Amino acid sequence: MRRLSLVIVLGLAVAAQADILRLTDGSCYHGRLVRESPDAVLFDAWLDGAASGVVMRFARSRVASVERGEFTAGETPRFAVQPGEQPDANDEQRTLDAALQSLQSGELDAALRLLNRVVIRSEATALGRLDGRVRERRGVGLAALLAQLRLEEALAAGGGRKFDLRFVSAYEAPEMSRLLAERLTQALHADFGGRSLADWSREPAMYRAHPPFAPRLLDATRVAAGMAGARLRFDRSLRTDRATRMQLVELRDRLTHFAAAVAALPGLSELIEHDTPLPDSAAAAETSASQPATTRGHESQREPPTRRRSRSLFGEETP
Asked: What is the pLDDT of residue 308?
């Protein structure tokens, strides 16, 4: 009992040394000031009774004041939660608002971590209320927003060369399944030299030499294979839909084998090293000369100028 009392006292002592960030809309955050500049304030906010580990960025125009290490008379630290105490509805809403603020500021990683915290800690009734708040602010539901952010994180984690989705909460799983199906369809219809990615993967024997777009074709194939694998792992509807599951297994394997075949052909590394923008005239001449002779029914189509690998994976012109 004495040890528990000591923990509580120490926790309150730490709380009393926290900084307070007050916004012009009347809300405030407790935590630690990271950095100030003429344009913004970076603040490590303490949410839901503990340090969040998420540094939030606030535009200077939204900041009323920053108080260092002291509270106003009679103010109780909102993060001084007793052991076993559950955060109330205001805590959940504040965490959600912090996530939306991070999203608006372009801090996608922070927004994802905060939304994940909201979903994991909130009861079903609270999630319904918070979902309505997200719809008012963003025009989409909470589950859809969380799934979108997690999918973008999976794309970024792969560096544009693979799709690395490691976790999906039960709350967002249906939305993630829908989103993965949409993105996978878009990926398969992406155009490369007058043929879709799906067509290339169905007839790998037709890929006999590397065209200029080979690095992007390889990356897109690996990402699409990763998306098919993610659906197999996280789409719960596939547990009873055996036909669709078998189709996805076949698609994943076909894409994986095609990616291996492309990577095995010599000369790919040279294309990757020289995958830089070309002048319009040079690009047109190169794409015309390098158009695969085996392309069926698309002899008049031309591949757009080669772009840097940092562009969007499926940003090619679609037919």
From this structure: 38
DSSP β-bridge partners for residue 43: 33, 56
Range(s) of the domain holding residue 125? 86-168
pLDDT for position 167: 92
The model's confidence at residue 89, banded by pLDDT at 50, 70 and 90, is low
pTM for the model: 0.65
Q: Judge whether 313 lies within some domain.
A: no
For the cut 90, the answer to whether the pLDDT of residue 24 exceeds it is no
Residue 141 is given by DSSP the state -
Q: Which two tokens stand for residue 128?
A: 């319904």
Tell me whether residue 218 is in a domain.
Answer: yes
Which DSSP symbol is given to 63?
E
- Do 186 and 286 lie in one domain? The reply is yes
**Is 42 in contact with 35 (CB distance < 8 Å)?**
yes
How far is Cα 67 from Cα 298, in angstroms, rounded to an integer? 66
- Does 180 share its domain with 278? yes
CA distances from 222 to 22, 117, 132, 263, 265 (A): 47, 31, 37, 11, 16
Which ranges of 60-141 does DSSP label H, i.e. alpha helix? Answer: 89-104, 108-121, 124-138
Query: Does residue 252 contact residue 228 with C-beta atoms inside 8 Å?
Result: yes
pLDDT of 260 reads 94
Same domain, 188 and 164: no
DSSP 219-280: HHHHHHHHHHHHHHHH-GGGGT-HHHHHHHHHHHHHHHHHHHHHHHSTTHHHHHHT-----H
Please count the structural domains in the chain: 3
Of the three residues 168, 188, 214, the one that is the final residue of a domain is: 168
Q: Are residues 20 and 52 in the same domain?
A: yes
Are 150 and 241 within one domain? no
Residues 210 and 267 in one domain: yes
Query: Does 253 reside within a domain?
Result: yes
- Per DSSP bridges, beta strands 63-67 and 191-192 are unpaired
| Integer Cα distance of 193 and 206 in angstroms | 13
